[in-house]
């Protein structure tokens, strides 16, 4: 499997934080649509983006920070 580029990782973190902010503001977020959008814009499968988001949640949890429910 190809390594994730720095740009892809930055896009993933940015999308994660955008979703997190929307949820905190009380908005409903369609995570599956976010993954599809990332896939069409940057490649990789939507499932790959979902797994990446789960990895971000794991890192945040390890540091005692809040993470998006359903992405652990």
Outline the structure in words.
It is globular, with a radius of gyration of 12 Å. It has helices at 6-24, 31-42, 46-62. The longest helix has 19 residues, at 6-24. It is an all-alpha fold.
Care to give the gist of this entry?
By secondary structure, the protein is an all-alpha fold. Helices cover 67% and strands 0% of the residues.
Class from helix and strand fractions: mainly alpha
- Which radius of gyration do the C-alpha atoms yield? 12 Å
Tally of alpha and pi helices: 3
Q: From N to C, what is the helix and strand string?
A: HHH
Taking the alpha carbons of the first and last residues, their distance comes to 22 Å
Number of strands: 0
Query: What general form does the structure show?
Result: globular
The main pleated sheet reads as: none
pLDDT below 50 for ≥5 consecutive residues: which ranges? none
Mean pLDDT: 95
Question: Roughly what fraction of the amino acids lie in strands?
Answer: under 5%
SSE layout and pairing:
Blueprint: H1 6-24, H2 31-42, H3 46-62
Question: What attributes does this structure have?
Answer:
mainly alpha
């Amino acid at each position: 499997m190809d390594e994730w580029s720095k740009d892809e990782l930055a896009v993933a973190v940015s999308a994660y934080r955008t979703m997190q902010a929307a949820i905190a503001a009380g908005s409903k977020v369609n995570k599956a649509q976010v993954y599809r959008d990332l896939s069409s814009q940057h490649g990789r499968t939507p499932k790959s983006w979902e797994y990446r988001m789960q990895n971000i949640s794991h890192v945040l949890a390890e540091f005692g920070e809040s993470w998006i429910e359903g992405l652990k």
